[in-house]
Structure formats: structure tokens, C-alpha cells
Design goal:
Number of domains: 3
CATH class of the largest domain: Alpha Beta
CATH superfamily of the largest domain: P-loop containing nucleotide triphosphate hydrolases
Oligomer: single chain
Shape: elongated
Order of helices and strands: HHHHEEEHEEEHHEHEEHEHEHHEEEEH
Number of helices: 13
Helix content: 25-40%
Strand content: 15-25%
């Protein structure tokens, strides 16, 4: 059913004015600021009041009142515009959608699970200005602190309440551009990924032993390859008695929300600087801070830049069993990407960076998507063996991609940490097809 979006905007303005008056009155009378939940509850009451007055106005003009069905739809639309994702919400509620790309309010593309190419979607706002307002509303309630999205701050990354990751830019493009990546599997383990066809039972056995042996792992892959989902699944193998600290640019992993698996988890989120350039906290600073927080494991959601050197130092200075993800087009490509980040951030020579990688990282797991089906699969597992003056990082491919696109054990390649993996419960070759 179609509703009058102009009416929705008009009534939303009335509700917003009333909410502002309530905030001002509480300040004047010395009352505490309302928390988010209480403010939303008051907003619900105000929406009902504004709709009642609107219907009275219609009656006074000889018009019929809004039907209960339309009134409910308008009420939800106002609430969604103020505290949610507006007309975006219908797409976020569709569990078959994996990604949403918006090139302007009326130019929307959606990618569904299993589909090779995106399909067009309907408008998500009546104008680009309204679309920007929706993102600003979402950003104001995201993470631990409000994130500005305006001419002075033309880009923003944030986590939506359902766990989706949103990235938005404006001013530097002809129209606001927003990309939303859905995470259908907030709580997932290795066996779940076996069932989805992401890996074989044999690969799950190996990864389970890698985590249990407290080896440090970098998960590599391209955009939308399933790196975060794989990290969650591997983190599910961490014993619940261990203390975990996660570090992210914007909250996405949600390990702390899985209290049964991770009862002692601290989630840290980087904070952008304000318009004066003050108050920012970088991921690199947070990684350094973890050394004073008594972690058993440190998990960096995604390595994006200058946090790489502190992360490598943390991995090599007692935080065994750390996990992180990095964007790379192959398992060995992860070494080049780490090296590039480190050289850009710290100006370190390639030789020094490769020595640091060899001393910090134990395994690299590469996950990719099948070009034809879009199926995510673990394709390669590398074991880091050390450093060579001429070769750089020395690594052996202990599992390579087979004819079905799955990682399969290279039985002719020895595993340097074989004893540690066996002690963690792994039995090399106990499955018949390995």
C-alpha cells in the first residue's frame, strides 16, 4: 500500500519539534537526559498524538479520517525515519538480500544470495536530501558515539542494528552513494560453514586445531568473500574461559553479543575525530592499548592501514592465537598487502616488515567466491615457516584448491607445526579423502 511521503515528512517534523521541546524542558528543569530507549518510547507516544490531531483536523474539514491500516503504516514510517532506516528498512528486513548499493535515492541495486548479478530495487527516499537525513539518523545511533555525516565529514562507516555494515559518501560524488553489506550469519561455527558448502569437514578439522593450538591467523580474501563470517566461525572455537578483545573501525563482529561462547569479551571501536580534528581514537591506538588489558586473544576485525605494525607486534609479544582479516586476492598476496600497509604507515623497509610477518603470523587462510555461482569457499591454507633474505616470507601451501574449488590437504607438504596441531586434537589424514 502506498502512503503519502510528503505527509509522513510533515508529521515527522511535528514529532521532531515535540521531542526537541521535551529535551529542552528537561534541561531547564534539571532532569537527566533521556536514554535512547526512553526517548524512543516517548517518540511512539508523540507519533500517536500527532496522528490523532491530524485526524481531528481532517474531520473539521469534512474529510474522512485515515484508516487504521494507513495510520499504522504512517506511524511506522515516521518512526523508521526518526530512529531507523526509513524506506531502507524494507530491504533490510528481506533475508534473501545480501548487499544493497545506492547511487542516489531512486537508483538502488540489490544482490540476493546465490545470484550472480545485482537487480534494480525501488527508491529508498523521495530525494537525495532525505537519503542523507536517513544516514545521519542511523549514524547518530551507531556504535559508541555519534558519527557525523555532512559536508565537513563526507564519509561514514557504521554498523546497523541488524549487524549489517554501511559505508556512505557524499559531496565527493554527484549523488550520495551508500553500500550496505548484510551479514546473514551473526552466530556461526565451522560446522555451519561446512553445511553451507564453504569448506569441507577436513578443512574444518584443520581450522579447529589451528585455533585450539593458539596459532595466529590472518584470513585473506576479496570484497564480500566471507572473511568476517569465517572469522566469527573460527572465533567460535575459542574456549569460553578465554578473555577476548576485539578491535574494529566500526562494530561488525558482534562476538560480545554471543555471551554463551564469549562471556569475557571486550569490544573496542575506533572513533573519528570531530570537525576540529580532536577526539579521534585510531585502530592503531586501540591495538596498542590491548597490551594493557590482559587479553588471551586479540581479534582485529579488518586490517585497513596503520594498525598493521602494532598488530604484528601484539601477535609476536604474547598474544598467541590472534585473528584478523585483510583484503587480498590470494593467500600469498596477504604478505604484499601487509607490507604495503606497514611501509605506508611507518616507512619500514620491506625486509623488516617480512621479518615481522614471519615472527607474528602462523597461518594464512584464503577465502574466495566462485565466479559462476557466487559460492564462498575456503580455497587455500598457508603455513608461515620463516624468513629468507632473498625470498622474504617463506610459506608452504598445506592445503590447495581442488577441482571443486575447496581447500584440500597437500599430503606431500610437511606441516612445521604438526605436533602442536596433533596435540590440539587434529589427526592428519584421518579422513579418507585427505
Amino acid at each position: 500500500m502506498s502512503i503519502d511521503n510528503a505527509l509522513v515528512a510533515q508529521l515527522q517534523q511535528s514529532v521532531g519539534d515535540r521531542l526537541q521541546d521535551l529535551r529542552a524542558q528537561r534541561r531547564i528543569t534539571g532532569h537527566d537526559t533521556l536514554d535512547a530507549a526512553s526517548e524512543r518510547q516517548f517518540a511512539r507516544q508523540m507519533i500517536s498524538e500527532v496522528l490523532r490531531l491530524h485526524n481531528e483536523g481532517r474531520l473539521s474539514q469534512g474529510m474522512t479520517t485515515l484508516s487504521d491500516e494507513i495510520e499504522e503504516e504512517i506511524s511506522e514510517a515516521i518512526y523508521a525515519r526518526m530512529f531507523g532506516a526509513g524506506r531502507l528498512q524494507r530491504l533490510l528486513d528481506d533475508e534473501t538480500i545480501e548487499n544493497i548499493d545506492i547511487n542516489g535515492a531512486d537508483e538502488v541495486w540489490i544482490s540476493r544470495a546465490g545470484a550472480e548479478y545485482p537487480e534494480p530495487g525501488g527508491p529508498v527516499a523521495s530525494s537525495d536530501a532525505e537519503l542523507i537525513e536517513i544516514i545521519q539518523t542511523l549514524a547518530s545511533y551507531s556504535g559508541l558515539s555519534s558519527r557525523p555525516f555532512d559536508a565537513a565529514n563526507p564519509e561514514v562507516d557504521l554498523r546497523l542494528p541488524d549487524g549489517s555494515r554501511l559505508s556512505a559518501i557524499q559531496a565527493v560524488a554527484s549523488r550520495p552513494a551508500i553500500s550496505i553489506r548484510r551479514h546473514r550469519f551473526q552466530k556461526v561455527d565451522l560446522e555451519d560453514l561446512v553445511g553451507l558448502g564453504t569448506m569441507t569437514h577436513e578443512t574444518a578439522d584443520l581450522l579447529r586445531a589451528i585455533v585450539a593450538s593458539r596459532a595466529s591467523v590472518v584470513i585473506a580474501g576479496g570484497t564480500n568473500a566471507g572473511k568476517t563470517t569465517l572469522l566469527r566461525a573460527m572465533a567460535a572455537e575459542i574456549p569460553p574461559q578465554e578473555r577476548i578483545i576485539t578491535i574494529e573501525k566500526a562494530f561488525e563482529l558482534s562476538l560480545r553479543e554471543d555471551r554463551e561462547r564469549h562471556p569475557n569479551c571486550v569490544a573496542l571501536e575506533a572513533r573519528p575525530a570531530n570537525t576540529e580534528g580532536a577526539g579521534g581514537v585510531t585502530m592503531a591506538q586501540l591495538v596498542r592499548r590491548t597490551l594493557r588489558k590482559n587479553p588471551n586473544r586479540v581479534i582485529v576485525g579488518e586490517v585497513l592501514g596503520d594498525e598493521i605494525v602494532p598488530m604484528l607486534n601484539a601477535m609476536s609479544q604474547g598474544n598467541d592465537g590472534s585473528l584478523s582479516t585483510i583484503h587480498a586476492d590470494s593467500a600469498r598476496g596477504a604478505f604484499s598487502r601487509i607490507s604495503s600497509y606497514a611501509q605506508q604507515a611507518e616507512g619500514l623497509p620491506r625486509k623488516v616488515v617480512h621479518e615481522m610477518i614471519a615472527g607474528a603470523v602462523d597461518f594464512v587462510v584464503f577465502v574466495g567466491r566462485d565466479a559462476g555461482t557466487g559460492q564462498r569457499k575456503v580455497r587455500t591454507v598457508l603455513e608461515v615457516n620463516g624468513y629468507d633474505e632473498e625470498l622474504g616470507v617463506v610459506a608452504s601451501e598445506i592445503a590447495s584448491t581442488d577441482h571443486q574449488g575447496n581447500a584440500a590437504r597437500n599430503t606431500n607438504v610437511a606441516i612445521q607445526r604438526h605436533a602442536q596441531l596433533e596435540a590440539a586434537g587434529w589427526n592428519d589424514g584421518h579422513r579418507s579423502n585427505w
